Task: inverse folding
């Protein structure tokens, strides 16, 4: 797709490349997820992906714009775990809008200023039409299909029918008025390399008139086609509420959830189990068998467990060594360190070591020989949960361990031994590690007969989990299925029409046609987004989708009527199924995720736009000429 894009050297190359890279986002929008195979021409290896984040992770990116896009997507994924598709799509759509503005002779500074105004208009829409999640009740038993948990990997046989069509419906929106976002006046353009928003500028919400009855209802609306993944999320919420004896289900501690992927079992065998479950090798599993049903002492290492590991502040440049260090053999130093650490662990009666980083193979082997189980790649939040439950203290280096740092009361339970699925695959054993007490730790077991699909299933689960997490944290959601984009496009077009008129001016009583052009083009980008979502349902063509959206924007004057009417747009071509109609549900989007994705899209566009301008025209060193530059 990217190779076939023709770049015109006479126009800003960066904006064209940004638009071309954003094309990979088209297939990942909407509830119907499409899988893609990415093949390495050199090695012949391939990867199965269905999200923008994974696509860029598996591409060989050589240009500066591609690297910048990848960093932006990574930043969005790291904080929100969702929204990278809409971020990338709008960055591409609005980059084409910027190209059109340049073609019409609008200056770079005017484009940035007017697009910032357009973003403020969109933020105002998000503020006015957000729906409060206050007053959530207990999860209804029939809200979502859930799985049971018990001893061993007991997989339920539930029929998980992913009917994405039911996720398209949207009831009439009636929440207008109360502020839920802090816009802070005119948006200041402040970019950073990693596009991080300070804590003080995060979204804050207030109660709205429209109330959502329970978490199951909002989770269903946030599933976005991933019904089975969201069912597992709801099951986790129910179990966490039961463990904490909090039946309001208004909170969801996503930091105490881990996933464990198991190949070789059908996808409907996915389930939620209490405790921290990991897959161990045969050597580690033999130690776990010896330690099962015994109260264990645990050491918590916040970093790598190796003799070369140094805290970030003490890391030395790679390849730089002192002469005295070259004279000492590295293997001797490692052996001395290893003997010291093993002796310390045995003196403290440590049976289990949880490591947030990587554990060296030699350490693992020596510990296994002395009945000490080592588990690495443990999430930092899980390490903290063990520290709280066992009274242990995480340390950076194993040599820092003392009796006051060692936690107690941990138990190991063998869940199930799993085959390798082939001669080239090693067998493994699922082991549950529980800190005892009411830790609130739960593991989601994800299964599939197709091994390469496991990564995509895991990504879908975490996307659903964080959508629900952000919704409960924001205490508000937005109308989904493209309705919010429809409202923003409507308001942008109204402001664009006003800018062409002299009746209401932006400055000094004169019309501002440039502002009208920019706002109209931004609205066109949102319309393109909505049309693409509709096309991805497989029921309408691109021309039909754009025609229907444009007609609705022209026919409807009130924003509420637009949102209500648009709920039927995505139903074009649906079968008249009475069962489907009875299962109509709202579709929701996250407030903070959408706002931050759109902000990142604009920041990315502005950076590329300004860079293109500097490359083409240079930077004027005259006094006052750099006032409009965005400095990193």
Result:
């Amino acid at each position: 797709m990217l190779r076939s894009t023709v770049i015109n050297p006479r126009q800003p190359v960066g904006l064209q490349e940004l638009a071309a890279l954003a094309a990979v986002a088209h297939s990942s929008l909407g509830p119907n997820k499409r899988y893609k195979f990415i093949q390495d021409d050199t090695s012949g290896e391939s990867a199965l992906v269905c999200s923008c984040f994974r696509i860029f992770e598996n591409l060989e990116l050589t240009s500066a714009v591609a690297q910048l896009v990848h960093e932006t997507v990574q930043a969005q994924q790291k904080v929100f775990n969702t929204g990278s598709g809409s971020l990338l799509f709008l960055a591409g759509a609005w980059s084409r809008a910027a190209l059109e503005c340049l073609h019409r002779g609008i200056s770079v500074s005017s484009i940035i200023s007017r697009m910032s105004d357009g973003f403020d208009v969109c933020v105002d829409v998000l503020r006015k039409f957000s729906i409060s999640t206050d007053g959530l009740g207990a999860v209804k038993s029939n809200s979502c299909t859930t799985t049971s948990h018990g001893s061993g990997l007991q997989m339920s046989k539930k029929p998980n029918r992913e009917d994405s069509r039911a996720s398209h419906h949207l009831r009439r929106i009636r929440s207008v008025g109360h502020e839920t976002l802090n816009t802070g006046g005119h948006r200041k353009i402040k970019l950073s390399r990693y596009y991080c928003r300070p804590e003080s500028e995060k979204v804050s919400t207030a109660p709205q008139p429209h109330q959502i009855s329970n978490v199951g209802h909002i989770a269903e609306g946030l599933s976005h086609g991933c019904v089975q993944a969201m069912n597992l999320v709801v099951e986790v919420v129910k179990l966490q509420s039961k463990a904490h004896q909090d039946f309001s289900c208004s909170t969801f501690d996503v930091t105490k959830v881990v996933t464990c992927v198991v190949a070789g079992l059908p996808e409907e065998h996915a389930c939620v189990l209490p405790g921290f479950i990991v897959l161990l090798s045969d050597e580690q599993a033999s130690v776990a068998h010896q330690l099962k049903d015994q109260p264990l002492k645990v050491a918590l290492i916040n970093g790598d467990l190796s003799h070369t590991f140094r805290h970030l502040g003490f890391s030395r440049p790679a390849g730089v060594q002192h002469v005295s260090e070259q004279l000492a053999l590295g293997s001797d130093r490692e052996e001395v360190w290893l003997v010291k650490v093993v002796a310390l662990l045995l003196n403290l009666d440590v049976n289990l070591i949880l490591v947030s980083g990587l554990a060296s193979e030699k350490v693992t082997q020596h510990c296994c020989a002395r009945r000490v189980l080592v588990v690495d790649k443990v999430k930092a939040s899980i390490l903290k949960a063990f520290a709280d439950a066992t009274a242990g203290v995480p340390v950076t280096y194993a040599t820092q361990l003392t009796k006051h740092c060692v936690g107690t009361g941990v138990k190991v339970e063998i869940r199930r031994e799993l085959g390798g699925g082939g001669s080239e695959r090693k067998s493994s054993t699922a082991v549950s590690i529980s800190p005892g007490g009411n830790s609130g730790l739960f593991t989601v077991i994800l299964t599939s007969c197709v091994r390469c699909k496991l990564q995509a299933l895991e990504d879908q689960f975490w996307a659903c989990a964080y959508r629900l997490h952000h919704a409960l944290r924001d205490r508000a959601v937005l109308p989904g299925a493209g309705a919010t984009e429809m409202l923003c496009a409507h308001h942008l077009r109204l402001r664009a029409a006003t800018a062409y008129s002299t009746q209401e001016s932006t400055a000094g009583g004169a019309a501002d046609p440039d502002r009208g052009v920019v706002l109209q083009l931004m609205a066109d980008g949102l319309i393109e987004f909505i049309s693409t979502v509709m096309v991805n349902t497989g029921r309408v063509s691109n021309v039909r989708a754009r025609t229907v959206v444009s007609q609705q924007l022209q026919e409807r004057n009130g924003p509420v009527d637009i949102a209500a009417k648009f709920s039927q747009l995505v139903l074009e071509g649906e079968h008249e199924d009475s069962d489907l109609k009875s299962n109509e549900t709202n579709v929701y989007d996250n407030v903070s995720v959408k706002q931050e994705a759109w902000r990142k899209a604009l920041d990315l566009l502005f950076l590329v736009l300004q860079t293109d301008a500097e490359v083409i025209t240079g930077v004027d060193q005259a006094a006052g000429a750099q006032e409009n530059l965005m400095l990193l």
